[in-house]
Amino acid sequence: MRNNENLSTTIRRYYRVQSKIYDLTRPFFLSGRRKILEETIGLTPIQKILEVGCGTGANFHNTLKKYPESKVLGLDLSEDMLSKALKKVKKFKNRVDLVQGMFPECLNDKNKFDMILFSYSLSMMGLEVDSAIKAAQRRLENGGLIAVVDFCETSFKTVKCWLGLNGVTIDGTIEKSLSKYFAPVMVKKEIVFMGLWKHIRFVGRKV
């Protein structure tokens, strides 16, 4: 519980400032968000989607476009980020709901989803990565999908240090935990952002 409390406080404090510049800066280096959604199309019927760490709602438009019959629940720790997301939600005609809090504690035990999306949020969870992925498995319907795009690896110590200063852990833990709890459907690693790091795109199925 103490780790969760510390993580929550750290993330909320960090995004109090970052929320003001997030939509202007993140598209330059958080690549793969569109690709990961495209790589889930046709794998299973999807109506209920959970995005953990939805931030300012940057993914909502593309998600709803790819899945026109779906509804999305966006979850984030940061009130400041969700205040930005709320402005985007109004144009989606009741297809998006927002929840502020820690995953999975803030969800009702009966909440089940056809797909859970983590877009550059697992790497912010530190020691809680494995427990978050395990919780995602429990929150999925049988045959449901987990879709992840996140930082994977870097050969540059300065990059790893810089990411660490921004709350990002890049150590391979994400891929190991995903493979432990899900049957991989698609795994791709891509060199991005001028070769400074790789991101991973992972789609897995609950079996």
Account of the 3D structure:
The chain has helices at 2-18, 22-25, 33-38, 60-66, 79-89, 129-139, 157-165, 173-181, and strands at residues 48-52, 71-76, 96-100, 113-119, 140-153, 183-192, 197-205. The protein has 8 helices and 7 strands, in the order H-H-H-E-H-E-H-E-E-H-E-H-H-E-E. A 7-stranded mixed sheet has the order 3-2-1-4-5-7-6, with helices on both faces. The mean pLDDT is 93. The protein has 207 residues and is of the alpha/beta class. Strand 1 (48-52), helix 4 and strand 2 form a beta-alpha-beta unit. It is globular and about 45 Å long. It starts with a helix and ends with a strand. The protein has one domain (2-205): Rossmann fold (3-Layer(aba) Sandwich). The longest helix has 17 residues, at 2-18.
**Overall CATH class:** Alpha Beta
Q: How many helix segments?
A: 8
Which strands sit side by side, in order, in the main sheet?
Answer: 3-2-1-4-5-7-6
Mean pLDDT: 93
Overall body shape: globular
Q: Estimate the helix proportion, in percent.
A: 25-40%
Look at the helices and sheets and give the structural class: alpha/beta
Corresponding CATH superfamily: Vaccinia Virus protein VP39
User: How many E strands?
Assistant: 7
Tell me the span between the first and last alpha carbons.
29 Å
The CATH topology annotation reads as Rossmann fold
**CATH architectural category:** 3-Layer(aba) Sandwich
The biggest sheet amounts to:
7 strands, mixed
Order of helices and strands: HHHEHEHEEHEHHEE
If you compute it from the alpha carbons, what radius of gyration comes out, rounded to the nearest whole angstrom? 16 Å
How many separate domains? 1
Approximately how much beta-strand content do the residues carry? Answer: 25-35%
Instruction: List the uncertain runs.
Output: none
